[in-house]
Amino acid sequence: MTDRASSHDATAPRPRREKPRPWRIGDIIDGRALRVRLSTAALDSIGDEDAARACALDILHQALFRGRMIAQERLQEGADGLDTARLLSAVQDEVLSALFDFTTVHVFRAHNPTEGERMAVMATGGYGRGVLGPGSDIDLLFVRSYKATAWAESVIEYMLYMLWDMGLKVGHAFRTIEECIRLSEEDVTIKTSILDARHLFGDAGLAAEMKAAFRERAIEGKDVEFIAAKLAERDNRHGAKGEARYVVEPNVKDGKGGLRDLQTMFWILKHLYGGETLEEVMETGFLDPRERRTFLRAARFLWSVRCHLHFMTGREEDRLSFDLQPEMARRFGYVDRGERLGVERFMKRYFIVAKEVGVLTRILSARLEAARKKADTGPLRRMLAGDGARPIDEPGFIIETGRLSVTDEDTFRTDPVQMLRLFTVADRYGLDLHPFALTEVMRSLSQLTPAHRESDEARRIFLEAATSYRDPAGTLRLMNEAGVLGRFLPEFGRIVAQTQFNMYHHYTVDEHTLRAVATLSDIEHNRLDAHPLPHKVFQKLRRRQNVYLAMLLHDTGKGRGDQQEVGALTARAASLRLGLSDSDATEVAWLVGHHLEMSETAQKRDISDPRTIAQFARLCETEERLRALYVMTVADICAVGPGVWNAWKGQLLAELYKNTAAALADGRPDEEGVTADLQERAEDRRWAVTEALGGLTETQGALEGAYWAGFEVEELVWHGRVLKDSEDAEVIVKARAREDGSGVALLVSCRDRVGLFADLAGAMAGQSANIVSAQVFTSETGRVMDVFLLQNECGELFAAGDPHRLEALERAVFSAAGHGAVGSVSLPSRRVGRREAAFLVEPKVSFDDTESAEYTVIDLSGRDRPGLLYEITREISEMGLSIGSAHVGSYGERVFDAFYVRKGIGGKSLDAATKSALKERLLAVLSRDEPEAPATPVRQLKRARSADSF
After folding, report:
1. CA dihedral over 235, 240, 241, 246, signed as positive or negative
2. What is the CATH number for 283?
3. Distance between start and end Cα atoms, the chain
């Protein structure tokens, strides 16, 4: 059932009126009266063609505008989008017909029409199907009997200029019947357009001739070629728009699960069976009644979204972007409820519809493929006659046309557990599902009752699917599309089609989860070349089942409070119900309850600090938990979306894993033991660098052990060479791209002073370099060694392939380091776009004295913008504080930064008064120029909670 706002909900918009009554075009546009007005205008302006044209244009434009306004009002009052699109098409028909009459009667009248002046005007494309979006093109086909005449060309030109002057986008073609057929054979797009052709006005006999010739010569006997071309076209479109159906800013028309997928099904069925209207084509019998209802329900919803998009933006906008989603949710009546934003609830509805379209597409494609394989033994329209089946050594199942099917339609009703077995058998044999089997699953879902979840056989089968050595994600995805996964595992069912309204997550929660499972499988089988360590770690796991199950359940707590706490509870309950032992269920719950900890520690904390490692080691307790958490974290980050994972995150996680693993292996995960381990490692690296360089410079030799433990030998050698090359220089600045491509390493060495970090950050911001990480080390001689990792604003290598830009960066940083405060920094301008402004980003600042023995850690978050790091560090330095290290992270529209600070150089952690004053200043920086975002009850509640947690 759709989760809609009730009329008594105080946060709901005003109650909607009942759906408007069915429309009649005569009540909206009186075609006869319209023609009379045009004739009157022509007669009143005899001898003045310009005046007649201007008056006619005004009359037609008024009629079109009135029809569009009525359509918009009906849509806002509850009419569905398909009804709206048909109304807009009918309005356009009346306006075009009146224009054609005006043109051929009063402007270019053919008093003695010849055979060459026979002309039919036909609508093609969406307009030909009788549906028209508010911003869609008007596609017209002018059909002539043979050669073009001056009269026909004059009529077409006049009409087109009138339509363009009305602000319409018109696509047009002027062809003979022979040209229509020839071009359709050469181009499937033209063929599809003509397949939709609908006679508007002009010579009806000529239009009928064209339709008859087209069906006889371009359609009959050419089903297989057309189907193959349309399915290939669909695949190419999905590739261009993104393969995932559940991207969080979907394209309503061309995206996977959108209107174009429905239209592809319509075109194929129309090519096979004929029919004109959508309802006629749906009644052909290829889809069963349930599937037809699903098709029409999806079409009405998607057309509703598309029509609202066009009216909202005033143009043909088909991308449901973040800035449009809140208003779309309001128009559909979705409001905040519990912890869920109304916009998230609406988007869940959208993705459920997209999922239904995906299932229909899979069923249709599989039926067509099966029919194609049978094409040698019978006509395509026999479709699935049942021949070609062969038995398989699995009771109840057969292989038919290369796909797994069931022996009869009662298989699942007799034994509902067979629904689960269907997917494991398909995985075991590497088979796709036959459409008959998939259809029977969806028809029989209600037979899979809660009692079956307690069945030992059902548990065993499900765990086999979820932890498959072959393709667990593919099997689970099939189960999810068929509705079986959410039915058998209700914890997962709650996150199906769930969205998170932010710019960081690219997919719905269930899609992200399945992608994470797929990545985990890739790690296990060493299919990710960029992750050699995770594969090695995975091989050491003793209970791989626990990791896979934790990955499947890791986000089941989202949208219900603290996602880790709630997730741990749901994961434990699910694990016990699936028959895991108490100890295994505890491990799964622990992994789910801490699945964000490793990522946050690696990216927001100083992982060369012994206390950080000791605290994380105490959290993990065992090497098995550490290994499982590490591979889960890698898979989780990789599955968030394109470009989210990078080599720098990989290095941070690997370093945290290695340091923690060493502490646990030594049996001394306390701070003292970790310190000893790091000191030993630092000493080994110090000797290795000394040997490689033949000695150390005074600056490098005087640096503390944390410096030597914080970098690999190769990086330390590079530091040493840079220092040796400029040993006597007061300021040393050098940049180079890291070999792993994670960013540009920038080394700065100079005399320490308060405010140095802010000056350096300002210089880098002025060069559009984003600081991802900064490590600050002070030698006994009073010189600092600052090492920054820089990326561009897209999270890619800064100044890739541009050595001049690197040189400019070095000069700017050199000047800032040597000449003190940079004064007014010229920051690159960046206006907050509408998409970013749609999000409510509450600034937050907190302090922690337990994370480090020497520093206070400042955690802050807010809306990202150019130069923000410089503004923050300037406030810190103006308070007389010294920055030991900075850890900067960007997550969509938000930043989450951590700074290790203390009073002055060599000072202590911050007192309460300093914290209070600094917090006020930092919040002012984070709140500066904050755009207004829609405020809703749930957002206000979250804002209050955030304020309380400061």
Report:
1. positive
2. 1.20.120.330
3. 39
In a domain? residue 818: yes
Best CA proximity match to 499, nearest among 615, 617, 328, 673: 328
* C-alpha dihedral sign at 334, 337, 341, 346: negative
Q: Which residues contact 756 (CB under 8 A, 6 or more apart)?
A: 750, 784, 786, 817, 877
Nearest to 777 by CA among 785, 767, 769, 789: 785
How many CB atoms sit inside 10 A of residue 384's CB? 17
Q: Two tokens at 433?
A: 């599902």
- Tokens, residue 908: 């202590």
Cβ atoms < 10 Å from Cβ of 760: 27
Whether residue 435 is found in the same domain as residue 532: no
| Same domain membership, residue 662 and residue 538 | yes
pLDDT tens figures, 281-330:
888 777 888 889 999 999 999 999 999 999 999 999 999 988 888 889 99
Cβ–Cβ < 8 Å for 479, 435 = no
Measured between alpha carbons, how far is residue 446 from residues 138, 417, 442, 449, 513 in Å?
A: 45, 12, 9, 7, 25
Q: Count CB neighbours of 512 within 10 A.
A: 25
Structure tokens at 472: 């667990």
- Is-contact 137 171, C-beta < 8 A? yes
Please state whether beta strands 432-433 and 744-751 pair in parallel, antiparallel, or not at all (unpaired): unpaired
Task: For residues 483 and 525, state if they share a domain.
Answer: no
Edge to edge, what strands does the sheet with 732-737 contain? 732-737, 744-751, 783-791, 770-778, 881-891, 894-903, 856-863, 844-848
The pTM assigned to this predicted structure is 0.85
- 236 with 111, same domain: the answer is no
pLDDT, mean of residues 877-897: 81
Q: What distance in Å separates the CA atoms of residue 664 and residue 537, rounded to the nearest whole number?
A: 15
pLDDT digits (tens, 9 = 90+) for 807-860: 999 999 999 998 765 555 555 555 555 666 666 778 899 999 988 888 899 999
Nearest to 684 by CA among 706, 707, 709, 710: 709
Distance from C-alpha of 159 to C-alpha of 840, rounded to nearest angstrom: 49
- Strand positions, DSSP E, 22-148: 119-123, 138-144
| Ordered alpha helix ranges (H), 283-331 | 289-313, 325-331
Q: Return the residue matching tokens 């960046």.
A: 830
pLDDT at 376: 44
Between CA 144 and CA 803 the distance in angstroms is 62
Instruction: Please report which residue ranges of 639-732 form alpha helices under DSSP H.
Output: 647-665, 671-693, 698-701, 705-709, 713-725
Closest CA to 790 of 802, 780, 779: 802
Contacts for 205 with CB less than 8 Å, ≥ 6 apart? none
